[in-house]
Amino acid sequence: MKITAKWLKEKRVCRKGMAWWRENGCEDPRDLLDTLIDSDREDWARWLVSKMLTHSQCVVWTIEGAEAVLPIYEDECPGDNRPRKAIQTAKDGLAGRATIDQVRAAADDATDAANAAYAAEAAYAVEAASAATYCAYAVYAAEAVYSANAAYAAEAADAAAGSKTHVKLLRRGLEIALGGAE
What we know:
- This protein has helices at residues 5-10, 15-24, 29-38, 42-52, 55-76, 82-94, 100-119, 123-140, 145-160, 165-179.
- The longest helix is centred in the middle third of the chain and has 22 residues, at 55-76.
- The mean pLDDT is 85.
- Helix content is 77%, strand content 0%.
- The chain is mainly α.
- The protein contains 10 helices and no strands.
């Protein structure tokens, strides 16, 4: 696959993004992702990856992101397994083993966990629980926005914890898109 001006326009890239792409001239998705990351444009990298994925691929990517930051939540809020349950229910929903109502309920529970973490001033845990919420929402919403939001939440939790797992997650999302993994 090549990233072209036509493809970017179809995906509704912003004017600044189009100008940046024209200036940097990256048609290979891997090169473009690396250039975006190196240019501190991880927000645009998230956008790119989310636009390249099918719905089910978005869900897979979102689940992987939430799983990557789940330990942050569990370290700050031991004993609260609502985000873990939301991730598992998202997996079950993707596989057809959970109903939409079950997935929504798990997402709501993970949201409640994020709110409890916020009230407890466990800032990193809020982002990690939010990633779990978004992965459950992504199962039944045909919008990539939930995957992009989950990637953002995972990135925020990860960055706050001082690691670079979020960069690996961006690259993983691209590989899912290019490799067709679902």
